[in-house]
Structure formats: structure tokens, C-alpha cells
Design goal:
Order of helices and strands: H
Number of helices: 1
Structural class: mainly alpha
Radius of gyration: 47 Å
Shape: rod-shaped
Number of strands: 0
Helix content: over 70%
Largest sheet: none
Distance between the termini: 160 Å
Strand content: under 5%
Length: 111
């Protein structure tokens, strides 16, 4: 009987030690779970921030592309207008030369 009681005591002590170790391990797992949950929350916030930043960058890029297209269109219009100005100046110069020639001819007739 004494041997059986000693064996039972040993089993109780082993079960108590295992229970204590399991509770300590559960406590550590719960702490890790809290840390992981906090990391998930931070990650989600970070992900939301990254998504918002990506959308803002995409919107800015679209606006920049639209501005670039508008500027390129204006450059084309200004270039065309500049070409027209040059042609008009040449035509004006030619007309002034013809007028000067006609004036000279008219003066010769009056002299």
C-alpha cells in the first residue's frame, strides 16, 4: 500500500508539474497571441495607409498626365501660331517690297 500511495503521489506531483508547465506555456501563447493581434492591427493600418498613398499617387499621376497632355497641346498650338506669324511677316515684307517698287515706279512717272 505504501508503494502504491507513493506512486500515486508521484503521479499527482507529475500531473501538477505538467499542469503548471501547461499553464505557463498557455500564458506565453496568450502573450504571443496579443502581440500578433497588435501586429495584425498595425499591419492593417499600414496596409490602409499604403492603399491610400497608392491611390493618391495614382491620382497625382493621372493629373500630371492630363496636365502634360494639355501643355503638349498648347505647345502645338503655339508652334502653329508661330509658323503663321512667320508666314504673315514674310507676306508683309513681300507686300512692302512690292509697294515700295510701285511707289518708286509712280515717282518716276511723276518726275
Amino acid at each position: 500500500r505504501a508503494a502504491a500511495a507513493a506512486a500515486a503521489d508521484q503521479q499527482v506531483e507529475k500531473i501538477a508539474a505538467d499542469l503548471h508547465a501547461a499553464r505557463a506555456h498557455n500564458g506565453e501563447l496568450e502573450r504571443r497571441l496579443v502581440v500578433l493581434e497588435e501586429a495584425v492591427v498595425r499591419s492593417k493600418g499600414s496596409e490602409d495607409n499604403q492603399t491610400a498613398r497608392a491611390e493618391a499617387l495614382e491620382n497625382a499621376l493621372e493629373a500630371a498626365m492630363a496636365t502634360h497632355a494639355a501643355r503638349r497641346s498648347l505647345v502645338k498650338k503655339v508652334s502653329k501660331a508661330g509658323s503663321k506669324v512667320l508666314r504673315c511677316r514674310e507676306e508683309l515684307r513681300d507686300a512692302e517690297e512690292k509697294l515700295g517698287g510701285a511707289l518708286a515706279a509712280a515717282q518716276e512717272l511723276f518726275e
